[in-house]
Amino acid sequence: MNLKLLNKMKIYIKLSLITSIGFIPFMGNSQETIYPSSAQKGITAITHATVHVGNGKVLEDANVVFENGKITSVGQATIPSSATIIDAKGKKVYPGLILPSSDIGLHEVGNGVRGSNDFLEIGENNANIRSIVAYNADSKILGVLRENGILLAGVAPSGSLIEGLSSVVQFSAWNYEDAAYKMDNGLYINFPNYSTNPNAHGPASSLQRSNERLETIRQFFNDAKAYLAEKNHVSTNLRFEAIKGLFNGTQKLFVRANGVKQMLLAIELAQSIGCPLVLVGASDSYQIAPILAKNKVAVILEEEHALPSMEDDDIDQPYKTASVLQKAGVLYCLNDGHTESRYRNLAFNAGTAATYGLSKEEALSAITKNTAEILGIADKTGTIEVGKDANLLISKGDILDMRGNQLEKAFIQGRDVSLDNKQKQMYERYKFKYNLK
Amino acid sequence: MKKLILTSGFFMSFLFLKAQETLPINGIRDVRSGTFVFTNATIITQPNTKLEKASILIKQGKIVAIGTQISIPTDAQVIDSKGRFIYPSFIDAYTDYGSSSPQNTGRSFNWGAPAQFKSNKPGAFAWNQALHPEINVVEQFSADENIASNFRSNGFGTVFTHLKDGIIRGTGAVVSLGKKNDQLLVLKAKAAQVFSFDKGTSTQSYPTSLMGSIALLRQTYLDAKWYQTKPLSEGLNLSLEAFNSNQSIPQIFLAGADKWAAVRADKIGDEFGVQYIIRGGESGYQRIAEIQKTKASYILDLDFPSTPDVEDPTQARLLSLADMRHWELAATNPGVFEKNNISFALTQDMKDSKSFLSNLKKAISLGLSESKALEALTKTPAQMLGVYDQVGSLEVGKLANFIITDSPIFSSKAKILENWIAGDKFTISSADYPTFSGKYTLKINESNYQIELSKDLKLKVIGKDTLDGKASFANNTVTLSFAASKTSNDLIRLNGNLLGSELTGTGFDATGQSIVWNASKVSEASEKKSEEEKQKSNDLISKITYPFMGYGNEVQPAQETILIKNATVWTNEKDGILSQSDVLLKAGKIQKIGKNISEAGAKIIDGTGKHLTAGIIDEHSHIATVSINEGAQSVTSEVRIGDNLDPEDINIYRQLSGGVTSSHILHGSANTIGGQTQLIKLRWGTNDEGLKFQGADPFIKFALGENVKRTTSMSNNRYPDTRMGVEEVLVDAFDRAAEYDKNMKANPLLTRRDLELDALVEIMNKKRFITCHSYVQPEITYTMRVVENMKKQGYDFNINTFTHILEGYKVADKMKAHGANVSTFSDWYMYKTEVQDAIAYNAAIMYNMGLNVCINSDDAEMARRLNQEAGKTVKYGNVPEVDALKMVTLNPAKALHVDSKVGSIKVGKDADVVLWTDNPLSIYAKSLYTIVDGVVYFDREKDAQMRVKISEERNALVQKMLNDKKSGAATKPVKPSGKALLLCSDHDEQDENHTHESQTIE
């Protein structure tokens, strides 16, 4: 725990809060004693804050009250006298950020450690693979992400052709069953490559092979549809059983695709199945924004902080793709796929989008409300509205900008979440060694 | 028409007067004088020298007389050449004709595969398999009639041939394309020595990179010189011996089409007093001043890109403007060389040699003069190769090598009829049989047909319905076929010869009955104007820009006097942040800082509400270079990034847009002691030398940890494989260098100069400085100790900078004591094992410990946002904003020893500044202007205009390609443009032939 931060917090946080920070470990403890929070007790009220609702609205000097993990009032309503008050005057309150697409919990060390890889199963068709069962709720990465306001994430296998089922997890949990926020919400597909550009969209591949792979995918869904139309089976097909939801509206199809051809073919595929489609990656989506809007295709932009794919492209193209989608009325959200900073800069991806065409509130929606809608959890989270889970952040300043982004508190389902992590502890450890303030 | 071209040619198989005396003859000798005289011809004896109605007399394969009034010996065969044109046969100065060159020399470096450290070639030869100056192609040369006939059909009579393989390829020979015994074909046995950058079929690991090839060449020059002292330690080295003796002949360097490669090759020559003839430079027109500066002669091919099929817009998008322009402009290259007085020969060393002559005509239509074209195919190559006394012009005493054409050779319809080589006739194509074309009355049985045969062998059967038939000429006979009537499918087929004025022969009528036919001429064929090719417009759309690509400028931006008014100025000096202040940039320097400055004639930039900072300096970058890693050995201090800069990397421009003005281009992290680095200024549009930051101290890259011990390889056999070994590699390297330093001082003439050790000695004598890739605390500590221990041997130096240094916070005190600078990432973590303890507070701790802290990119994208990365030190550890900005400006300037020139806004420093829209540490800040040396290299408004221009020019070129396709041009699928992005751990070169095996670890 950052002592300086803690001291400042003490000034702002009223006495009654001590109970809830009682379990936050002090210096010298390792990450293993950063505990998942227990259920919210009583009523909590964040007061006098600038509330960024997530839907575009900003409420000045507003209160957010929550009880039993749910938001009970937002705005200027009277605060129940029994409420624990957190005075957030001069601070900003945001919905918890949601990372839409990741391998968190499946992939601990980025490179060179085979033992830490649990995201890629053998075989071309892994439709039945479920990311949630391998999800490591004790991943060391989570603490860093919480510190950066990310409280929920979509987790998916990756690498094969039909990659498997994704789930949404929350970041304060003892185990995967605790963590599951929405299980098996979608099937991930890695769409065959239809680009001959070796730089932008992976290695150049033969179009013939791509056609064969696409045919494999199409046949799989046709066979699944036929199989699922029949209730009684002599032998069970685990792959078909796993994707029932695609045919009854409870699952979405997530397709990793970047090129225009890939994306158009993916739309065709989803329409033939009759399921909602989410394009993941979609670096060229700005070229077909009206088509995406018209066909109600959602988009997860993998990484704002990327180089343009072609030399002649606008030098800031990836930065402004979000605003193109916004203007065209596409439902989209932002991810942070950067492999070295490991997801922590989600808010700054949104900040960049705000610098290049989005309003700040639109940029915020792109990492909260829109994401929740795309992942199918908008009934529970994504905005600060009555009835939703109290997934909240309190920041000293603008979280989209590194100059303002200083998280002071975070709540998942009303539970006061520790913002401590190994990095902060190492910071403390060496400040101690060097006798630094 | 093609049917007339007899690619195998005819050949007279007798011997001239003197037979080969050592050669026994099986049978009866057949000796002839070989005396021919060609009369009434137009003879072009050499470029710009034309004799009309002249004769040329040849005997025994040589020219005996030439002129308008020569006496004709009685035994001469007189060939009336009225209407014919005679030129010297062409000379190709770069081939592998008749050699045993390998077909496929493609190579790729496999990061994971075991290394091969020694040459596989048995014998007393060079240590490196790619060096074989001892090979003389003449010892393996054997004429190859198939290939020879291909050359001859394009008019060539003589070629230079060599073994196309390796970096030093040995000597090539000048040989005749005749059909004689090999002994008689060699004009010059060792005509030139040939070099390249490409190690070809060598299986040895070293070198893996372009800069490695360059270093290997430089070292070989030094070794060869040293070998002349007969060093006992070397024993016999046949390669060095040969290399030394090859120095007296011309030196040809295969650089390739890329203009920068030509410049690179020439620089190697400059260093060792050798002027190479450069094979390559086909993109030279894009940078003709630099090409001219090499003072080299060139051997250019005419391999022009065919029209890309751009109908599919998603494919068209993959083609860069640069490649589109090259499609349009490639054929202008020889003309541009001519205009700039650059000597060049032409070669058909290209993928499709069949297009050689048509491409030559295209080059002529785009500016190359006919006389220069001829010179480039005759005199110039002959002189280059030292055989102008034998070939290259039509003069008495020279070989009877000439071609006979039916019209001036560069006219569009010209055909080469015969190619005479050393007095031997090779028929290339038949003449048009002017007597053969015409209108005839054809009699078959009792029927008469009116037919017309055109000069280009088109057959028409004239009647109520004029029908097209087929005509061909092969094996000296005419073949005709046509349908008996419009409604019939049955063909009449005829074959015959021109006897007298009558075509006659045998055939079958439509019913299959055997017939005899004859056709008597009625009149000449109607001189139908051959469908003139639509006069193709030679209006060129493409612009020449600097660099030659999108976002290049037609005129290089110039230094200006610029007055920035009323800005918030982050000085990085004692004054801190000045509000509402003016800064004057003049003559490339910061001239004045203050309020209410005025300067007549200055360009005024309104800085109201804007922030002005010093330009960003990236301590760790890998842009603007062709290769990054020489990974074959653990110590490669001999290689230099500066040898292979790429001034046309779009990332230079992209990073300017992020306020970067200087970048330290580092060797990668593939080995413990990597290569020499290069500090550059982002002067967009300049050449490689222009990029270099002049007067800066030289640096070198070291690396520790996982990349060096090749953790991701399952079969590493390169020492070291542990951190323990890494430490010993360092100890050993400095120890070797100390011994070398001693020997060099004691005995400079007899000591082998070693480029690898030279660099280490420079380090030890504080003339070169180390930036060391490092992660975990033990390796950081032992590296400091290793160099500190060198004090015992009298060398007092240190690690100048630890880069990456993600566990630097653990040993900040030790580094402080050692005196190292540190350069780190703001928030990278958990991307491999050795960064599990990486923390975002690293920079703040090191800062608080008083270290000079830099934040670097090592990432072409992130370099565009280094200001924000510095801003993160405010978030992680509360570094004051003024000091945070210094981490990407003044601090790297200090670490790189250039803080007297850049890094702050101070009078007298270089005018390297950025004007931002917002607080520079904010994510909302965009640069409006990025200025280097007082030159505006990035201007956001101009950028918007350039985007429009790029799209307009692309569109115009796409339309031209589509029109080409519509009018029947052959197209090929789009080959995506672009260079791979190099990473710290990459072994890729930016070469389309190499497979890309990116390792995205840092």
From TrEMBL, chain B:
Organism, scientific name: Sandaracinomonas limnophila
Residues of the Amidohydrolase-related domain: 341-412, 612-927
Transmembrane domains' residue ranges: none
Keyword DNA-binding: no
Name of the protein described by the UniProt record: Amidohydrolase
Annotated keywords: Hydrolase, Signal
Disordered as annotated region, ranges: 964-1002
Keyword match Hydrolase: yes
Pfam families hit by this protein: Amidohydro_1
GO molecular function: hydrolase activity, acting on carbon-nitrogen (but not peptide) bonds
Entry-linked PANTHER family: ALPHA-D-RIBOSE 1-METHYLPHOSPHONATE 5-TRIPHOSPHATE DIPHOSPHATASE (PTHR43135)
Signal peptide region: 1-19
Biased composition (Basic and acidic residues): 992-1002
Tree of life domain: Bacteria
